[in-house]
Amino acid sequence: MIESKYLHSRSLLFVPAGKLDKWDKAVSSGADILCIDLEDSVPPAKKSDSRNVVFNFLENGNLKHPFVILRINGPNTDEGNLDLDMIRELEHPVNGLMIPKIDDASLLETVGKQLIMFGKKTFLFPLIESSRAILYIRSILTRNLVAGAVFGGHDLAMELGCSKEWDVLSAYRSQMILGAGGLGLTLLDMPWFGLDDEEGLRRESVQAKSFGFTGKTAIHPGQISTIHSVFTPTEQEIDEAEEMIRLFEENEGHATVWKGTILEPPVIERAKKLLKKARAFERVGH
């Protein structure tokens, strides 16, 4: 089973395959998940060389991070098939694969079967970046080995011919969150591309959290602290959750009022989930 800490990850930092010399800086960022990118960050002419570099890097086995995934090329492409061949040969497999260009569950099912056949305990993180992926979101997210998903708003906006503004893409984010309901997955929002706009990153992170995303992806180590400040439960939230649970239990599970809020099972369940998340990220000592 995947560790509970990574079931609701707050952050994923992309590390281009051509910049693995920056790995230690990526590790020190504190990102919950590090994702080596063999797809968009690598020009077509460099795919083969980058794949060899990544293979040697992973085989070294000294990743210095507990949860590393690999963003491969589309599994229905020649480059994607070569990526999967590389994964089959790895002695030290990565924890997961980010799968781009997923339009429905069939391709994801094929990849999952290959991994099982390879004997690799590798989780899948589909990249939801097309209108068809949105339409078939539930079937995609319920495939074997899927541990989370990433909202690929940039490519989706290109396909639809719309802007990447929050209000424009919010409907598609909502459909992704709805499709993931009750599955307990890591759900990560698209990156914020304004590297010099910390306030914009914070604002969009707050919006993503309110929609139900567990975290956000990042393209620079400097973005991680801001993302974590939004998605990590605060001490006040922890104290309030503990107080609500205590009061509810003292009243033997009967609905009661706390600070103007009626405490009933759904409210208490949400408080318990918050505490579980806080403990996973070492915000509480018990």
* The level-1 CATH class of the largest domain: Alpha Beta
Mean pLDDT: 91
Structural class: alpha/beta
Give the helix level as a range of percent. 40-55%
Q: CATH-wise, what's the superfamily of the largest domain?
A: Phosphoenolpyruvate-binding domains
- Largest sheet data: 8 strands, parallel, barrel
- Count of individual beta strands: 10
* Topology-level CATH name of the largest domain: TIM Barrel
Could you characterize the architecture of this molecule?
The structure is a single chain. The chain is α/β, with parallel strands linked by helices and 286 residues long. The chain is 46% helix and 15% strand. The protein has helices at 23-28, 47-60, 78-89, 105-118, 131-135, 137-141, 153-160, 166-179, 198-211, 224-231, 235-250, 265-280; strands at residues 11-16, 33-37, 68-71, 96-99, 123-128, 148-151, 186-189, 215-218, 256-258, 261-263. The strands form 2 sheets. It has an 8-stranded parallel β-barrel with strand order 1-2-3-4-5-6-7-8. Strands 9-10 form a two-stranded antiparallel ribbon. Strand 2 (33-37), helix 2 (47-60) and strand 3 (68-71) form a beta-alpha-beta unit. Helix 11 crosses helix 12. The chain is globular and about 65 Å long.
Key terms for this structure?
globular, single chain, two-stranded antiparallel ribbon, 286 residues, TIM Barrel, alpha/beta, eight-stranded parallel β-barrel
Briefly, what is this?
With 286 residues, this protein is α/β, with parallel strands linked by helices.
